Structures
1.
Amino acid sequence: MFNKSFKGKIILPTAIVLCVLVAVLTAFLSIRFSAFSDSLVDEKLIANISSLESYLDNSTANSRAAVMSMAQNPDVIRAVRDRNREEILRIFTPVLDLYRINFYTILDSEGIVLVRVHEPDNYGDSLAYQQNIQDAISGKVSTYFEEGTAVKVSVRSGVPVYDTDGALIGVLSSGVRFDSEKTVAELKAYLNSEVTVFLGNTRIYTTILRNGQSVAGTALDPEIAKIVLGEKREYSGNTDILGETYKAFYKPLLNAQDEAFAAIFLGMPLSKIKRESNSFLWYGIGIGLFGLAVSIALLSLIISTISRPINILAYNMGDIANGNLHISITTNSEDEIGFLNKSIQKAVDTIQKLLNDVNVMIAEQAKGNIDYRFDAHGFHGDYKRLADNILELASFGMKDQLTRIPNRRSFDNRLELEWNRAKREKSPISILMIDIDRFKNYNDTFGHQQGDVALQTAANTIKRVIKRSGDFCARWGGEEFAVLLPDTNSPGAAFVAENIRSELEKTIIPCSDTRGERITISIGVCTQIPVSGSAVVRLVFTADSALYQAKEKGRNCCVFLTSDEA
């Protein structure tokens, strides 16, 4: 029976064809990829090693040229002899980029620093322990990889500076540093591989990141450290760095004492190499396309016998996708297609009911009935969760989440509705704008959590005072509230406003430390009978102006204005 079902008609021949195709394609690509990856990694690593050697040679040459050329400059000789730090800085600062070096250090004949051009405020210490400085004091020009005080890993050249009478007056030292984020970043861009500079067996600068953070400060693998730092030999091979495998090269840097005090690492993560090698996958794609063409031809013959019900279903699904849910999906088939049609129709009916319920709720809330909710218990599974989420969003959209009274949006909807009704019936409509007095000081004194309690208490008091079912209160924003009183004249509005003010003045705000606190409010009141050409915004503006006057009068009071007085 399996081969007579829709599933059997499609899956069985498809599975056979695709299994053969995948087997052939996987075998071919595995062989090609393995061979290519190995050769690609080796060739790229060799090229990177050569580029690194060239970079170190150029850095050494630049360092030596930088001191040799400047040591003969008469302005330099004069500035060093006079110990003129300002003049030394003026001469040397512009030529750092010219010689592609990172630092100049100018010292006296005893090895005491006169000026560090790269750190002008750092001088006066002795660098006589450095070999290039010792050689220069003794009259020799030398270049070494060395560790310094301010610059930990660099290539340095030292040269003596003689006065016109041949007396030694100082030493120039310059170099290219490798212990900086800029250096490793430039090397990474130049070599297209990860770069790390080690001082001893510690990574001091690296381009390797884990979770967005540099892995600087971590230690070199002990076995590799033994080869590179202990035996002073270069190392090439696979290595694991914090859980990722790299094709790596380590070069030791030897100082004047022939000690491997530092090292430079070049590495390519094998995952990256794999991505770079994916161009060879096109060979497999060619074979895959051929197999796919054969599969499509076979599937076309098979599907042609069962395409009619699928076409009908596709047509219906097109209507559904375009938003037409008022369709009836019918089928005479009893196989999987028939079952699918019935399931889709059931899903459409459920979605249609949910949409109808949501539309009714939206219409009711637009009228100001913000507490209206449809019944979500008639839905099940994900539909039930969707209905619950819609109800929750509706609550978020129409109610203030702190005070649990309507929000500004709800108030605007209700105000528009009542304004139009008052205009039709030529009845008065009143609005109260309420603001808690000195609320910022209250927050600063008792804290924002206690301020929230005050807002909640104010909202509950306002709700308790307004009696009629048509009266409406909302949180306007911050410490402001608004009350809408349909079919209420000015004396009635003033009466309600004074009741709210006096009730809240008497209300004790609960505190966590059992102390009772009180707050006061200022209220602006406006009443208007809408006529043709009048605008609801004028009513709100006038009430707000009245609130401002209440604040000006000293707070804790009510001020009534007509729309003509604003």
2.
Amino acid sequence: MLRNKPALKYCGLTVILSNPSRFDNMSLLSAGAGTLFNNLLRPQYNSMQCDVRLMEDKNPFLPETKCILLLGQAAMHEYIVETRNNTLNEMRGSPFYYKDIPTIASFFPQDAVDIKNYESELNKESKEFSTDDEDDEDEGDQKSHSGTRRANFAFWLSRDIWKCKQLLASKENKKWPVEQEPSYRIYPSSNEVITILANNKNNVMFLDLETDYEEQNLLCFAFSFDFGKTVYSVPVLNHEYRYSYSDLPLVIEALVTALNDNIVVAHNGHTFDFFVLAAKYHIPVRRAEDTMLMMRRCFPDIEISLGHCMSYWTYQKFHKDTDSIAYRTHQHLIDKLRYCAKDVFGLALIYKAITTYAKTIPGLADSISCANRSIIPYLVCSIQGIRYDQKRVDALKKENDELMIQYNSIIEILIGEKGMETARAAIKGGKKGLLPGSNKQCCNYFHTQLGYPVLFNSPQTGEPSLGKKVMFQLALKHENPVIKFIILYRQVQKEYGALKFRPWKDDKSNILPRRGDQTKDNLLEGLHDMW
């Protein structure tokens, strides 16, 4: 059985792999995976100071072992029993203990260097489940960890190794530096909630909402004013969909006061929390900040879900699977309140960490501030609409029409009459459409008629596809002017499609409540719509 015993002085890190990679014939962590792993350990350590073994190797750990790094889902499930109902994508980066030794799981190094899931295809010994490319477009406050793109595996592996290095350098051996849990006030009295909300002004308020899925009815909200030291989790509707407090209108009125008088921080607030408050309940937020936008400014190409952010900035365990999906019993209510409170605690930790980090990068704090300043205008345009000059929009559309007609005419001249007839024949029946906007016609011309090699097949149909990125790749490989004019056509077509705006609503009948106009009646107008 392969094992890389430390050739130099043992640093205290034991690395356990799910299986050898397809390149591990003589030793573990060979080829590109070994180079990546060694680079991530440097400059403090290197792989020759580690004990690298397979998960089947049950030999005792070396006496000086300070940390265990599990690489691969199978290794994680083998050594951390409590993770067996979760995926590696969810539990990666969470701190655990195996026989009192700090333990953390992360991605298999060979997967982190492969551009595709070659291990499952080419390695007969692979024990890994498919963790292949999952687009992360919908990265809100998900109930399970949103997907991690394969291109980012190395980034997250780097962060998990960084956590190991921090522990190895710590004087307090065999102990994760986990943040102290706050004081959770679950289902506090209405008087306590009203007092806290009404008496905090010009402070930072961390907020999270929980709603049902169909109507976005507000089930509960949690908040903190002291950076997560005390978190209040407040139900709005109980499990019978009735008022959770007899004086709920006063609780909501106090919430509005707090939202009006403080800087409100949420994760994905610009498309969920702040939007729900304003659009459904007519409760605006005056000063807003969003840790999702802040994370995006720090790392533009990296996943930004709350679960990912917590795994990067904190030592908190994954908790996104603790929410009660059902809402039919009192226990469901309590579970949701605890889940919501945990989100606020994580939110506060993330905000504090990003704010500190931003000060170390020139210009980053200003970039984050710019993103946060855009939240309120974005919400206003989303809900109220936007004022625009219809004549100017019509003029732009006319110009784009003329450009697309000219580009298409040039393309047809370059291809020729016979080539166009063959390309159009790829569409059976119905409207043929113009070649630049038709994937089938483009594929017929470039792949069938010209014989260009297929660069990409659609995962859904298995057929060749020439989307935006692939068309640019085609342009790099072939000096064909048709490709350039198709790209120009599609750019103008996309701009044309974007020239649609939500009209500004009638100021007299549909304006949002102004500061000073929030009475108990109009504040609860949206709330009463739920029953």
3.
Amino acid sequence: MLYTRQYYREAAEALDEMISSLTYSEDSKSIGRFSLCYTIFILSENIMLTALRQQGVKPGETRKIIMKVVDETLDQPRPHILINTKSGHLCDKLKQKEAFRAYPEYKDLLLSPTSRVSANDVWKEVVGQYFRYSTLSHTWEDGGEPEFRNVEKISVHSLTESFPHTKLQTFCRKTHEHGYWWAWSDTCCINKAEQEMLAASLRSMYRWYSDSSLTIVHLKGVHLPLEVDLTTLLDILDELLQEFVNCRWNKRAWTLQEYFASRVIHFYTEDWKPYLPIRCPDTNPTNHKHLRAIQRGMELVTKVDANHLATLKPGYGEARQKLSLASTRDAYKKEDIAYSLLGIFKVTIEAIYGDDEVPRALGRLLEALLTKSGNVSILAWTGKPSEYNSCLPAEITVYQVSESLHIPKPIDEATLAPSVSAMHSSMSSADIESAVRLHDRLLDVQPPGLQHGRLTLPCISFPLDSIAPGPVPGTYTATVPMLGKVEIETAEDLPAARNMRLVHPWFRRLLDPDIPQSGPARRDSALKLLASLRQPFGALLLARISHEYERIAANQLITVQIHEEVSAGQLMENIHVLYIR
């Protein structure tokens, strides 16, 4: 029976014990039974070995093939260094492989012959289960955390008592209680003295959290809320969640990435109790990320609907939304405000630390994002410009509003239809064809690009005829053909600037990429564009310096509107590609 159920080792041991008992028996009947059992044993062994050979697995190959599966697993993108949750020692991939040899299930695999077809599934499952790991999401203590050099040669369990040490030790213990042999913490599992290793870790961190089996979140400053009954929970839920909303974990840059990347999360309070705003004896959720209470807490933190948060995926889509989420967070090292977003945007830049890099890190991130996505909404902001490029902001805080008023909002069909109808009746055929050519010309314009701090910006450009100081210092009134009088507020000295112009770079959002080749639908699409271009928009102010331009940062949005009488032909004459430093 044991053999038929593929318990080969147990069957062999049972048969061996039976044969041993019969061998020393003086009962003649038992001796006869011994001969029968021995014959069965030899026959069964021959059948088993014959079957294994026919199915392609030789017993001597088992160890070799299992270790090949281990090598393939460790070759996957995963942390190079992990903590063994039982011993507390740091282990690189070679030591992790050595530890697997002492894993009881490994010995079982060696003693359990099976077919090649089923072997791959069995071996991969056992190996995969063993090498699962958890990740820690937390905030660093101002007094320092145990780093690689502190635990390189000792067990984390032997660290002296302190809050950071206890946090790391408890994380390892909780991980082991969840059934995982391996744990990763950004405090000690990265050798920050090796710049190449540090840079690779920063680029890979989103993937590591995403591939982990569990992320344990430690909420410093959050304590177990009072127990409440279900009838009053909804009335006081937001009040119960305030400590969670205000905690430091929800204000740090790296933890935003860790929350989005992690598939399974367990939240723990400061004293390591499971965090839930309601305590039920039978409640043991496997994933706190799916709890409505936690989702409500994240809504209060981000001001974004939980369903929308759940749909945000890594990549350059919804760039403004993601920048807005990151805009309220801070980091101990200012460069990390940019580096913590690499995984969220799936862009790669070199991680450099130092005083010279502080004003450049965000610029290099936005450069990579703009170049990859062509999303010009990144340029929609007011405030202080970056040293990296004048069209980029110095601080991420300018993105707190997820949708900038710079960009004209689409006109709904009910409002747009009368405008298009009026154009049809008032415009000549030549003017309508000019509108079609304008649409085609804008559609053919290459997307913006930013390389090495130089921006290539397609736009509709409006030169300033004159500019005069306003009644209040820092305010100016400009006269712009096709726009009229424009009010500008800036800290820059505008009369000293020359060759200034206001530009409209937002037209891509107004284009219809599926415009028909001909017919009334094609003309309607072109007229819709013309009507949309005449809506108010936030213009960028540029000043020409030599052969390039520089953005003049405005303190307030420069809102302008193209006059109704401006034709499509006039607009087409003002389409330019400007180079901005």
4.
Amino acid sequence: MRHFAATVVVFCIFAVSAWGQMPDTILINGKILTVDAQFSVREALAIHNGRILATGTTADIRKIAGPRTRVIDLERRTVIPGLIDSHLHAIRAGLTFSTEVNWIGASTIAEALDRVRQAARTMKPGAWLVVGGGWSPNQFREKRRPTQAELEVAAPNNPVYVQFNYAWVLMSRTGFNTLKITSDADLPAGARLERDTAGNLTGGITGNQPGIVALFDRLPKPTLEQQVDGTKKFFRELNRLGLTGVGDPGGNNLPPSDYQAVFRVWQQRQMTVRVTYSLNGQTAGSEIEEFQSLTRMLPPGFGDEMLRFSGLGERVTWAMNNNDKPGESEKASYYQIAKWAAERGMALTMHWNNNASVDQLLTLFEQLNKEVPITGLRWSIAHLNDTSPASLQRMKALGLGWTVQDMLYFSEDPTRSMPPVMTAKKIGVPVGAGTDAHRIASYNPFTSLQWLLDGKAVGGLGLRRVDDAPGREDALRFYTQGSAWFSRDETERGSLETGKIADLAVLTKDYMIVPLDQIGTIESLLTMVGGRIVYGVGPYAALEGPGPR
């Protein structure tokens, strides 16, 4: 490997002398996990024009630096390729990020309520305080949900809305009054008021996903300016955690108008996370017409390296969404859309939860593949945590990938097993790691990596299929090279190799050797996207700012 590194450096020195290419930036004295085919570790790397010019020893990389080269001393810190969440509702999360209260990582109810209290101090009386998701009662030491009375003590002058998953909402009495909810008749279909054993209202609302989604949509919507501000802040929050890319699958609560904020940030050239996005069906029964209209000016791959249209997902049609027993007419409508997408070379990702019913989807894809080949389109299935080897074999034959989310991190069911990611790897199904944040789960990739490795839910519950436990190398691959496959970028990013885009993160702890139960506490000290420092704190705080794009 040393001979190979020396050869690379010799080539780069030749390139510098022949074409005048000097590194813009070099990183030295580090532990750089390249995540190449050999999972090589290097001391240093050089960046020119947003791409990696060379990797090698500190001494070798110093030789190709010029007088204007920026030198960043890693001081033995670990560097990884920028993480890529293959399934994160980032566009939707950004819309409300600057106006929501975040309970991600709070270890007690007191800490969570204090965040509400702090937010109330900065908000006008009467302004909504919203916790939109990404938390679980299992993360709290008290192992319970907060009460209405506790919310009202924390924020007596504001309506408060707290959502857990897509199944439960807690509101203050001011919130109920503001939304004029006094009985079940005032709630969306599929939702009802929660009562205690004595029949008294608790302040909670239970319901199915459509009902909870419809309830959330009754909250005041942030202005476009707030949405743009929230999008920028959310992307910076992802940068803080070493994320440089996401695959956004569309999903609930995201009509076409809600893409304007991310488009505005893109037009302003202020994107700090690479986003590939999908469009989802909006109106039940009219999805094909909507897709045809929305994509008339959106060919596959439209956009650039920071924001790019991918295809359709994850709710392609309402009728097939979370439907384990679709009828023939429902499958026929889905088939029509899938065929239309395949004929245009579009990507498609499909939300499917249960292996017991996934035959419905796989059979449809197999029929379509005989008519319009889809094996080269990089279609994928999201979720499907309990997939079987037989299903994975069928996915492999169709060229499908599998995006795996850590929603089981919040599981309370001791019968559940970890997703068989290593079986998928052995069979040859591409695996991309992710979170499904931020309504369902935390967007923290290191929490997800720790869960992949130790199989423990947030409350300590063990979920494990022993022969499918990945090692640290494989888990990191799933979050880098694996996720890049779904956006056709694995030759451009996902590893720190010569010629690839310089997306990387300098970590607070060494991912490879830190105790397993501390992986979830890792953050980034410095994050680069295309060689540009988009996040820097501590010893690198002064480096953040404009740079090569």
